[in-house]
Write a structure and sequence with these properties.
Blueprint: E1 2-3, H1 33-60, H2 66-88, H3 96-120, H4 126-133, H5 136-147, H6 155-172, H7 183-206, H8 214-236, H9 245-273, H10 275-279, H11 285-297, H12 304-319, E2 353-354
Antiparallel strand pairs: 1-2
Helix pairs in contact: 1-4, 1-9, 1-11, 2-3, 2-8, 2-9, 3-7, 3-8, 4-7, 4-11, 5-7, 5-12, 6-12
């Protein structure tokens, strides 16, 4: 979830439908209220879709093997993105090198974490899985210090990293010796979030500036992940003797909404309001996942789970801070430069922590 990706580890920059940069509104002007409402509604829809993804995974595993849930999610997600590519008349990326890097990204950002979350939710609540997903910015911050030389740490961001992992220990109840916690399932969920962070760094280092559109790269990546699990899943699973309706609907919703449609929503939000605002969806996902798990699945948790989740999100928010550059007023009569378009943000989810 994916999960929107953490701003500190951006992936492939999304571009507007045309190569023309977005117009900068005149000073003192504002966007129409209807347009502001429109992106806010879509922002809320994106948070709901990604938050409910963990519930869909939980329900899906009641009728299918974890690898089948992940494969179905990718299959239906690919179908949505393929339709979008046809409608927009977009072209697939070119070059063997690009496709090779996309195959690695497909494994790290889709095939592996989707499968890990499905296996994790066999033994842990969807609530805990959603909170583990929120650690992606923390892993991203930690890895970027090593892999991205231009991403220098600050005291605030380093403090955020420490605070975030204190929150993780709080959620897990470390002072109780992790009693009552399924260690394997929790470790798989955390490993899935770690995979997201590694994948975003790989994308940033290898797939920036390919010339292909973000929709084209995303559709190709999810399609490759589908092919990967199409090969692997039959080796470890068998066709179910019977298919229950509710798990099937959950997998369909997980793919069409949580993977395909969510990506399309994210593109529009980033293009309209910029990556910083769009990335805030990350902090709503565990709240929605917890609410859905408690109200619809009857899951229960102790006081340390919500408290730890708040600490995790606070730490993740601090890791995304940037030092502001001081600007001096131009001399009288000097030309005032036109503000640049917002720096592009990751096109693929969850990352944001993508669900």
């Amino acid at each position: 979830m994916s999960p929107a990706a953490p701003p500190s580890v951006p992936a492939v920059p999304p571009s507007p439908p045309s190569s023309t940069p977005p117009a900068v509104p005149p000073a003192g002007s504002s966007r129409p209220a209807s347009r502001l409402l429109d992106w806010r509604v879509r922002f809320g829809a994106l948070a709901l879709v990604w938050g409910f993804s963990f519930l869909f995974i939980k329900v899906g595993t009641e009728g299918f093997a974890p690898l089948q849930v992940a494969f179905g999610r990718l299959l239906f997600g690919t179908a949505v993105l393929a339709v979008a590519l046809v409608v927009k008349r977009d072209r697939l990326p070119r070059g063997a090198r690009v496709w090779g890097h996309l195959a690695v990204a497909a494994f790290l950002l889709n095939a592996l974490p989707f499968s890990l979350f499905a296996y994790a939710e066999l033994t842990i609540p969807s609530t805990l899985a959603g909170i583990c997903n929120a650690t992606t910015p923390l892993w991203g911050m930690l890895l970027s210090l090593v892999a991205l030389s231009e991403d220098r740490p600050t005291r605030v961001r380093a403090a955020g990293l420490g605070i975030g992992f204190v929150g993780v220990l709080t959620v897990l109840g470390a002072w109780q010796g992790f009693s009552g916690l399924d260690v394997t399932g929790t470790a798989l969920a955390l490993l899935a979030s770690f995979s997201y962070a590694v994948g975003w760094i790989h994308v940033r280092r290898t797939l920036t500036g390919t010339g292909a559109s973000n929709l084209s790269l995303a559709g190709s990546q999810v399609g490759l992940a589908t092919l990967q699990l199409a090969v692997v899943a039959p080796l470890f699973t068998s066709i179910p003797e019977s298919v229950e309706l509710l798990p099937l609907l959950a997998v369909i919703a997980l793919g069409t909404l949580g993977t395909g449609y969510a990506m399309l929503l994210q593109y529009g939000i980033v293009a309209e309001v910029g990556p910083t605002t769009a990335s805030m969806v990350t902090y709503f996902i565990p709240v929605i996942a917890a609410t859905a798990g408690v109200t619809l699945l009857g899951e229960q948790f102790g006081w340390n789970t919500p408290v730890g989740a708040v600490v995790v999100l606070a730490g993740a928010a601090l890791t995304q801070t940037r030092t502001s550059r001081r600007r001096t007023a131009p001399p009288a009569g000097a030309a005032v430069p036109v503000p640049e378009a917002p720096e592009p943000a990751p096109a693929l989810p969850k990352p944001a922590a993508c669900a």
